[in-house]
Every structure is written in C-alpha cells, then in structure tokens.
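Can't paste images in this forum, so I'm doing it all in text. The chain is below; anyone willing to post the predicted structure tokens underneath?
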Amino acid sequence: MTRLTIDEAQHRIRHFLTVDMVLSFRAVDYEHPELSDSVAATSLADVHRARVTHSHVLGASDCLYRIEAFGDALLMSLQLNVRRFVAIYRVPVNGPVDSNTLAPHFERWRIGAGHAGWMVGWRDGTDPWKPERKVVETYCYAMLAEDFLDNPLEQLYWRTDIVQMTRAFLIEAGRMGIRLSAEG
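Text version of the structure:
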C-alpha cells in the first residue's frame, strides 16, 4: 500500500466525490438501446438521462448531490472518510409520516444494500435549508478496504454500487408513489 500524504488523500477524495461520482450519478437513469443480436456501440455517456448538480467545500470529506431522474429529484450526500462511506438519502415528508412509517416501504431496498456491505438506518430530521420542513434521512454506512484510495477496482465497485443503490432508491420511491423532491 502506498503511503499517501494528507494533501494527496484529500485530493483523491475530492476527485472521487466531485468528478467520479458526479459523472457516475448521471447514469442513474439512462436509455437502453434496442434489443439486438450484436454488441451495441452505444456508450453510457451517450444515453444518460439523469441531471446531477452538486455542492462541495474544498477540504471537506463530503459532497451534497441533487439527482434528477425518473421524473423526480433526490437530495443525497456522500461522505468519504478515507476508508468509510456514509451516504444519506433525504425524503421530504408531511403529516404523520416519519422514519417508522417510511422505513418498511424500503425494506426490499435495504436488504439489497446490506448484501453489498451497507448498514442502513433511518431517522427523522429537517431540511438543512428550511428547518420547518420535515425529512426522513436514510443513513447508509460502509467500511472500505484500507487501500481504497489507491485501488481503482475497489473504487469502481463502490462507485457502481452507489449508483445502483441510488437508482433502486429512486425507482422504489416512484413505485410506491413517494415523492423525493420537496417541490413535487
């Protein structure tokens, strides 16, 4: 394992969060080419449909994303603390809905995330910009290999898994009629 300086580690974390993940999240929703008996020449970059905006502060180990896909928009954050991920999905709620009523709707999703190595929890919270607005936060924790920042295959695994987990979260919410966008 290569010994990274703090500056190099922070640079790699920033790049992963603000370049690699932003590009990857665009593939949360994409158009499939027509069925064929030959290999398609279409690349994912050519058919992605998701729109991704993000917010990051230099030196911080987290990034906030707004992922617009499947007719909705999900606010989520991802923290990369050298060898640990924390992903937080925020769902705006109204009335008597809280983490105890929302969590069972995502049980199938939680089981899938667990198979990939994520520990999932739910809690009630507030919108960071509008404290009067209630949200349910889904916290997902995963420990990474010690050489994560040096290991492109580990990065590919987790990047792909985060995209698939986010895609499944969006699809599951849509299937159940749960709006993820506070504006919707």
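DSSP finds five helices and six strands in the chain. Residues 21 and 159 are 7 Å apart (CA to CA).
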